[in-house]
What we know:
The chain has about 250 residues and is an alpha+beta fold. It is about 40% helix and about 20% strand. The longest helix has about 30 residues, at about 135-165. The protein is elongated.
Amino acid sequence: MEVISTASSQLMVHCGGNIVTRDQLFALDTPAATATHHPMPHSDLLEMIEDSVTRKFKVDVDSLDAAYGVSADQQQLFGVIAVKLDSDEHSISYGFRNDHGKKLSAALTLGARVFVCDNLAFSSSGVNVFRKHTKNVYRDMRFQIEDAVQASTGEYDKIVAGWERMKTIPCSTDESFSAVGRAQGRGVLLPNQAAIAFKEIKKPSHVEFAEQNVYSLYNHFTEAAKKGSPALAQTRYPKISEFFDAEFMH
């Protein structure tokens, strides 16, 4: 299993796929189109995303924090790109996938955190865009990607504002323990994940989350949530966000 983490995103390849470089990605072949199926080259989808992101944030392609993976047969692409914004703590991320077969739509997901896996798990804290490989896929994906990237800072600002509010809410050790117990009882955390969250509360893996507040607790939860089936990641992190909204943000 290979796990590549960018500033605020994670690409996991453990189902027979391989991590590739950008140059290797651009060298891959694309099947010919048929009357009903119009496969998009992996490189074309990547270039659409890069073009929108670099123009939006006025950065060079080489400055993007990116990782790419392909399936064993090279038919499917999985990738992540992160752009650092106002500080080392905050980044906005874009996850994407493509398929030369007929199994998956071309897709983009974006938010303050994204997770992409070659077992088809595909999730974020923000917005998702999907388009089947039919006629006009190029035109539609280009417009949808551009619209999503242009709107992404608004989504990012909303998420980060929530995190900043969490930092102002104190949360003692006992209160944190109680929250983990409730989360396990409601199925937000599995027992082994709850055990990791308890450990993180007692001794955080990251010094920046040592302060006793709801933001630190949120990060203890997300650290714990890394343990478990990647296939469930697309529901795991939204459940954590919903739990914190209900418990602390009303």
